[in-house]
Structure formats: structure tokens, C-alpha cells
Amino acid sequence: MLRTFFPATDIHGRSFRTRFTRARVRLRRLYHGHSRTALRFQMAVLIVDLAIIALFIASPVLRETRWFLYIDYSVAAVLALDIAGRGFAAREPLRWLRQPFVLLDLLILASLLMPYWLFNIGFLRIIRLWSISQSGVLWRPLRRHGYQEWELLARAIVNLVTFLFLATGFVYTTFFRTGSGIEGYLDALYFTVASVTTTGYGDITLGGPWGKLTSIVIMIIGISLFVRLAQAVFRPNKVHFPCPQCGLQRHEPDAVHCKACGYALKIPDHER
């Protein structure tokens, strides 16, 4: 009897481990895969990120309504499911838990769970948009449909938008108080754009040493991102055609040879 009992337990245990492993692999493919289903799932996660940012922007208005906690806790529940899903799919959960983006998500979750005691730092979730941009998830549809030439411009726009929302959220969270001139999120966005473009109307300023340092950082980084955007808009027109020899991706429309290795190119007419 003992001989038949233990093998059965081992079989059931292995079956459970197999289902557990398959579930992790399936979820990992959704988060990091390239299939159509995975892309839809990743876009849904991105929508959650945007919803968290929207909640941060609307919090001052919603805070006085009876629906605020319901909305806040609903978003927190979705974020908690996302964090749990990522941890479940990670190959090394403990190592994954020590990553900066994960710790940042946990801080955001804590601010959502205790909205009346902790400052809402949901604006930091915009960093996820930048990280997704760097991973290439946003640009796969462009590459799949043959619009690779727009990727550089799209990356520059995403970087600028990410910085604008990140800087605006920091200014709004740090300097929003009575008599500061920043009476809402729109004022913080207005100040950020005025600083990034170096317009400097002077109607809204950040007081104190920290305010001046914040303004300096916003101007320096903002100008750099604007230059990158201008370079992407006005760069010379090139076609996307990988060189069979060295792999160089972009060439002049009338190129006959690869400028990197000299390999003879045969760029199709429809690429020009």
C-alpha cells in the first residue's frame, strides 16, 4: 500500500508543477512575446499605466467626491494584479523584486492604497511608457507594416512627452501649495512647457533654491529633447533596407553601395 501511495503523490505533484510551469511560461509570453495576442495584452497594460496617470491628474477634483475611493482602489487592484502577474512570470522572482521599476511600482501602489496619508506619486508611472518605448514594444507594428522610417521620430516624441509629464507631475506634487502660483495640474504643465521652450513668461515661478534648481534641470533636459525631436523631423530622407553584408539599416534613396561596407545594394523601387 505504501508503495502505491507515494508514487501517486509524486505523479500528482509533478502534474501540479507542470501546470504551474506552463502557466508561468504562458504569462511570460504575454508580457514579453511578439505574437498578436501578446501585443494586445501589452497594449492593455499600457492603458492601465495611462489610467493611473489620468487618476493622478484628476485626483484633486475627484478627492471631494464619494466615488474617489472606489476609483482609486479599483486602479490599485488592477496595478496589484499587474505586479503579481509580472512577479509570477519572472524567471527569478527575488531578483525581479529588487529591480528599480518594481520598487517604483510598489511605491505607487502604496500611494494608491493610502491616498489620504501618502502623496499620490502616480505620475511616476509615465516612466513605464519610456521603458516600453526602449524595449521596442511600441514600434513593432511600425516595423511589421513597413514604416520603420517613422520610428526615430516616434521615439523622440515619446521621450519628450514622457519628460513633460514627469516634470509636470514632480512640479505639481512638490510645489503645489497656497500662494505658490500653481493652483492646479494645468498650471504645473504650463510652467513646465514655458521652461522647456525657454519662453519664461515669469507669471509662474518656483520659489527658493530647490525651485530654481528644478527650473534649471527642466530647461537643460527639455532643450536637449527638443533638439533630438528637431533632428528627427528635419533629418535627410532615407529608406529602410538592411544591408546583406553588414546589416546597416538605413541608406540614401539613390544608394548603389552600402556606405559602411561598400556592398552592392539592390534597393527595390517601392522602397524609394
UniProtKB/TrEMBL annotation:
Keyword list, A-Z: Ion channel, Ion transport, Membrane, Potassium, Potassium channel, Potassium transport, Transmembrane, Transmembrane helix, Transport
Q: Which domain of life is it from?
A: Bacteria
> Per the UniProt entry, what species is this protein from, by scientific name?
Aurantimonas marianensis
Question: Per its UniProt record, what Gene3D superfamilies does this chain match?
Answer: 1.10.287.70
**GO cellular component annotations of the record:** membrane
| One function term, GO molecular function aspect | voltage-gated potassium channel activity
Give the matching Pfam families.
Answer: Ion_trans_2
The protein's topology relative to the membrane is:
Multi-pass membrane protein
Name this polypeptide is given: Ion channel
Which residues are in the Potassium channel domain?
Answer: 161-233
Traced from the root, the source organism's taxonomic lineage reads: Bacteria, Pseudomonadati, Pseudomonadota, Alphaproteobacteria, Hyphomicrobiales
Is Transmembrane helix there in the keyword field?
Answer: yes
Subcellular location per UniProt equals: Membrane
| Primary site of residence | membrane
Kindly list the residue ranges recorded as spanning the membrane.
38-61, 67-89, 101-119, 152-172, 210-230
Report the InterPro entries cross-referenced here.
K_chnl_dom, K_chnl_Slo-like, K_chnl_volt-dep_EAG/ELK/ERG
